[in-house]
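Re: that backbone. Tokens:
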């Protein structure tokens, strides 16, 4: 099931991304500073990675909306038992954690 992207949906998405960006960027800055053993300014990382982080958050937001839409569709059109309970969400551990 696809999402209808009207002006309201786009605005809501941009608001969510704007809220998430500082937390993601702070975490990324800390990881990179720790990894390289230096302390760089936020502006330094924003110049290097700001556009990437912005695009990444857009992709994550769209993927989460699609996933939510699919789960709702499973629950609505699925079998008599709750199909959404069959979806197995697992946290994928990374070397960054």
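Recovered sequence:
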């Amino acid at each position: 099931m696809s999402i209808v992207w009207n002006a309201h949906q786009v605005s809501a998405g941009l608001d969510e991304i704007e809220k998430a960006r500082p937390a993601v960027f702070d975490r990324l800055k800390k990881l990179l500073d720790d990894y390289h053993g230096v302390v760089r300014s936020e502006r330094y990382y924003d110049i290097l990675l700001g556009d990437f982080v912005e695009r990444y958050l857009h992709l994550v937001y769209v993927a989460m909306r699609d996933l939510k839409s699919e789960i709702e569709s499973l629950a609505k059109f699925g079998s008599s038992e709750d199909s959404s309970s069959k979806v197995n969400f697992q946290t994928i551990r990374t070397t960054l954690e």
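The two ends are 33 Å apart (CA to CA). The mean pLDDT is 81.
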